[in-house]
Amino acid sequence: MPALQTPAPPTASGRVAALNAAACALVLAVVVLAAQIHGLDLTVYREGALALLGRAGDKELYDDVLVRTDTRGLPFTYPPFAALLLIPVALVPEACALALVTGLSCICLVGVSVVVVRYLRSAGVSWSRPPLALPAVVLLIGISGPWREGLGFGQVNALLMVLVLADLLRSTRLPPGVLIGIAAGIKLTPLAFGLVFLARRDWRSLAWLTASFGSTVAVAWLVAPRDSAIFWLGALFDASRVGDTADLYNVSLNSIVMQSGLPDGLQRPLWLLASLAVIVAGYRAIRRADDDGDLLRAITANAVVMLAISPISWFHHWVWIALLFPVGLVFARSRAGVTRVVTWILLAVLLPVMMFSSITVTLTLTGTVSGQGPLPLAIFSGLGVVVPVALLAVWSLHPVRTTPEQPVRA
């Protein structure tokens, strides 16, 4: 009879992995509790999918109001392809759908945190090496304002971010641009990541992005031709359907211009000029980042362009701050003099701005949610786009490095 073998004791790496997994589970529980999940946006997604199926009573997909709150009516604002993909979460009980979306967002949070930790380690940041670095990063990102509120609303921005990262970090065997095109089919703003391919003169990837996005439009048009026609020929061009562009919760250049008090005839041209300047700065920043071998900085620069120039970028759309801070940290460490000081100051200013949205502030101070507020609150909220754009400008200047030139891999 063969002797029974005693199981080998767990290795040090196995114990560290188990400890990280347990710590991440605990941290995710804290993050979910901090988010105070209510799923308002998920409710709109579900109603949109049901309307597409003809199971929402007399409601249609692009009606002005699908879900009514105490203060306003909420429409479905995404392309028809998004409604198609959301059908599974519309056909299960609401609690199950909310649990599914929350779980998926938590997986995305861990995935983004892994990217950040690997990036910091590659750049030689010492505190990113301890065994519990990953749970610490998960916590820091998860309790930040955009991630916390995005979880609360049941938003899809974290998933879109992961699709874009998987594409640009070459985490799949799909041709570059395909996943970005799919993300843009769900929500149009990821189309802005074509700027990365444009800056690199990567016409093949740009073609794949275009073909992938066009495929999402074609599929949705075949399945839902009437809703597709309504969206692409009408609803798409009505920014007021998304919300009040002058709302303080809208952290974009457009919001700042709308709040400026300038004559209506000057507002749109000024926004377009400011957006063009940001695109140029983003183009230069991407080229400079590629010269430094810093892929994640190039991606982050493009994300800032996307969010800054979009007519509406709600506070919870800024999930990309998960990369903005570590990229800014690595950049500051590699520079000297004024550039280093300015970068640190900008990051220090951005930290509290990205912890507390206008909704959080007005709800805390007045007990009600308001899109308007006094001048100090307007300035505080506006810094959420002004500071990232200022960082973008600094990155585009390409100051001389003070450390040896080394590629920084994500």
UniProtKB/TrEMBL annotation:
Subcellular localization(s) per the UniProt record: Cell membrane
Membrane topology (UniProt): Multi-pass membrane protein
Transmembrane segments: 16-37, 76-92, 98-120, 132-148, 178-199, 206-224, 269-286, 295-312, 341-365, 377-397
GO CC terms: plasma membrane
Main location class: membrane
Keyword Amino-acid biosynthesis: no
A GO MF label: hexosyltransferase activity
Keywords (A to Z) from UniProt: Cell membrane, Membrane, Transferase, Transmembrane, Transmembrane helix
Keyword Cell membrane applies: yes
Record-stated family: Belongs to the glycosyltransferase 87 family.
Protein name, as recorded: DUF2029 domain-containing protein
Species: Arthrobacter bussei
